[in-house]
Design a protein that fits this description.
Length: 383
C-alpha cells in the first residue's frame, strides 16, 4: 500500500489512475508520495517515508530541491504538459497589452443603465486605440516548451520574433519555426523588441532580469509580459517605468501587492495553466511518473535525479540513491557477491552531485547492508 498526499486540487483524470494499492487524499499521513501544483513546500516537513514529489506543472521553485536531493526524494515535473494553455494566455496577453480592451470594458460598465450608451461608446472609444501586433518585434526570453509555442504562434500572427536562450535543448530547437531569429544576447531582446515576453524559470540568473538597467535599454513604449514567475521582474522598477511612460504596459500572471490596480498594469490570477486540458495532462503525467517510480523504481522527468527507465525482467529490483562519488558500484557489486547474489541487470546514472543505481536480481535481498555504506542516501527493494 502506498500513501499519496495531495497538496493542491489535482485533476481526477490523473488521480483516477491510482488503483487500490494507493491511499490518496489531502489528509493522508506518512506519505510515500506528494502531488503538488503551486503550493509552497519550503516549510513542508519531509517525512522519512517520503520517496517522491510530483509537480503537476512546470515550475519547481515551490519545492526545496536541494533538501529533497539530500534526503533522496525524487522530484518530478511534467514538461510541456501545460505549454499550450500558457501559450494561449500569452497570446491573449499580447493583444491586451496592445489594444486597450480591459480598460475599454471597464469603461463600458460605467455606462450601465445610460440611455445614450450606444452614442457615448462611439464618441468615447478613441481613448482606447492601440496598435496591431502584426509586423511588430516580439522578444522571447526562454525557448523551452512554452517559449517555442509562443514563438511559432507569433510568427503565424505576422510578428518578427527574436528568441534568446543560452541553454536551448535540441528538442526545442527542432520544434521551432525557422523564421525565429536567434538573439545572441539578452541585450538584443531588450534593445530591439516592441514586446518582450518571459518564459524562463526562476533561477539565480533570471531573478530580477527585468530591472531599471534592462528597462533603460528598451524602446520607449515597450510592452512587457510575464507569465513565467513574479520574481523575474523588479516590480518597483517596472512601476516607475510605467509611470514615466517608458513602459506602455506590463501584463503579468503573478499578483504582488505593489502592482495590483496600477494604471497600465494588468494582473491575472496565475491562470496560465488553468484549463481543463492542461490540468488533465499535467495530472495524468505526474501520476504516471510517481507510480512508475514507486512501483518499478524507474525515473522519468525528474528535475533532481537522472533518468533511468528499464523494463522489469526480474523478481527484485534494488533502487539505490547515493552521492555521485567514486567506488559506489564496486561496493554494491562486492556486497552482493559476498551474499552469492547474482546481478541480472545494473544501471547507474548521475546528475550533478547525486546518482541513482538500479540492480535487478532474482534473489531475495535486504537493504540493511546497503544502508550502512557511506554516501548511500536511500535504499528500496521493489518486487
Ligand atoms: N503562468 C503559468 O501558469 C505557468 C508558468 N510557467 C513558468 O514558465 C516557465 C517555463 O516553462 P516551460 O517552457 O514549460 O519550461 P522549459 O523548461 O521547457 O523551458 C524553460 C527554458 O528557459 C531556458 N532558460 C533557463 N535559463 C535561462 C536564461 N537565463 N535565459 C534565457 N533562457 C533561459 C531553458 O534553457 C529552457 O529552454 C516555468 O519554469 C514556470 O516558471 C510554466 C507553466 C505555467
Ligand atoms: O506549471 C507551472 O509552472 C505553473 O505555474 C502552473 O501553476 P498551477 O499548476 O496552475 O498552480
Amino acid at each position: 500500500m502506498y500513501n499519496i498526499k495531495l497538496l493542491n486540487k489535482i485533476s481526477p483524470v490523473g488521480v483516477g489512475q491510482f488503483d487500490d494499492q494507493y491511499l490518496v487524499g489531502e489528509d493522508v499521513e506518512k506519505e510515500d508520495g506528494v502531488l503538488v501544483r503551486s503550493a509552497s513546500m519550503h516549510e513542508y516537513e519531509l517525512n522519512d517515508n517520503l520517496k517522491a514529489i510530483a509537480r503537476a506543472g512546470a515550475g519547481v521553485n515551490n519545492i526545496p530541491l536541494e533538501k529533497c536531493s539530500n534526503e533522496g526524494i525524487v522530484v518530478f515535473n511534467t514538461p510541456g504538459a501545460n505549454a499550450n494553455a500558457v501559450k494561449e494566455l500569452v497570446l491573449c496577453g499580447l493583444f491586451l497589452s496592445s489594444r486597450k480592451v480591459v480598460e475599454g470594458i471597464d469603461w463600458v460598465k460605467t455606462l450601465k443603465g445610460n440611455e445614450d450608451a450606444a452614442k457615448l461608446v462611439e464618441k468615447g472609444k478613441s481613448q482606447f486605440v492601440g496598435p496591431e501586433i502584426e509586423g511588430r518585434k516580439l522578444g522571447i526570453i526562454g525557448l523551452g516548451a512554452i517559449g517555442v509555442h509562443v514563438a511559432n504562434a507569433a510568427i503565424k500572427l505576422g510578428m518578427e520574433v527574436y528568441g534568446f536562450d543560452p541553454y536551448i535543448s535540441v528538442n526545442a530547437a527542432w520544434g521551432m519555426s525557422k523564421w525565429v531569429k536567434n538573439a545572441q544576447n539578452v541585450e538584443t531582446i531588450f534593445s530591439e523588441c516592441d514586446y518582450i515576453t518571459l518564459h524562463a524559470p526562476s533561477t539565480k540568473e533570471t531573478k530580477g532580469i527585468i530591472n531599471q538597467e534592462s528597462i533603460a535599454m528598451m524602446k520607449d513604449g515597450v510592452r512587457i509580459l510575464n507569465f513565467a514567475r513574479g520574481d523575474l521582474v523588479n516590480a518597483q522598477d517596472v512601476l516607475t517605468a510605467i509611470d514615466s511612460g517608458k513602459v506602455a504596459k506590463y501584463i503579468t500572471d503573478f499578483a504582488t501587492p505593489d502592482i495590483i490596480d496600477h494604471e497600465n498594469v494588468i494582473v491575472m490570477p496565475h491562470l496560465g495553466a488553468s484549463t481543463p486540458e492542461s490540468e488533465d495532462n499535467c495530472a495524468r503525467m505526474a501520476v504516471k511518473e510517481i507510480k512508475d517510480y514507486l512501483e518499478s523504481g524507474n525515473i522519468v522527468n525528474s528535475v533532481n535525479f537522472p533518468t533511468i527507465n528499464e523494463p522489469r525482467t526480474t523478481k527484485y529490483r534494488i533502487c539505490l540513491i547515493h552521492k555521485n562519488v567514486p567506488n559506489m558500484l564496486a561496493q554494491f557489486a562486492t556486497l552482493l557477491a559476498n551474499q552469492e547474489i547474482n546481478i541480472e541487470n545494473m544501471v547507474n546514472k548521475a546528475k550533478d552531485d547525486y546518482a541513482y543505481t538500479i540492480i535487478d536480481t532474482n534473489d531475495v535481498v535486504g537493504t540493511k547492508e546497503f544502508e550502512s555504506l557511506e554516501n548511500v542516501i536511500k535504499v528500496r527493494v521493489v518486487e
